[in-house]
Design brief:
Length: 227
Amino acid sequence: MKWLHSIGLFVLMTCLSESISAQVGDLLNNFSIGINAGVNLTSAQFSPTVRQNQLTGTVLGVSARYVSEKYFGMICGVRMEVNFSQHGWNEFVEDFDDLHFQRTMNYIDIPFLAHLAFGKKFQFFIDGGPQIGFYLNDKSKISGDWDSVSGVVVEQHTLDVKHKFDYGIAGGIGFEMKTRKAGNFLLEGRYFYALSDFLGNEKKDYFGRSANTTISIKLTYLFDITK
């Protein structure tokens, strides 16, 4: 996933460079706040590998955005959110339809994103940057006799979350419709790749890697405080 790191770094450095060279662009002072809600399609990256499907979860929270400059048609700013967000995974075993396991993990996620947009009333935008998260709790569901199947990894079923601070890279693309009186409406797809592990990852631990990966599909409503 090195390309995700590169995209996030590129977007962040682009906006920083635009802010530094503000004298050559059209200065803006647009601060907006609002709410967002959507669906998470989540999975966990394990080593050793655990076969799984994506788990559907919820994401909702508050959003803030500051747009500072327009430079050669490119609108540059920053976004921040504080979200209740569900991560986790959903396991299956081929040829054993009665075996199911899923764990839903609840977090408070805080992304800090550089924001690049193009257009006027209808805008296409790209966001990217770091994201941190704080584990709250989790809930598991299990069915079937997993002990009766050999060669299936089951250690993750009983292990507690050890590392409660989550961090990684987030990036997304979307469209925004701007209105004068009703506010701004954003539709976005975003991907989060965790650089941290939520289970123990020392030599004595079973897993060397246990990280959240999430695809979010979100709607955001923003209204302008300053323009």
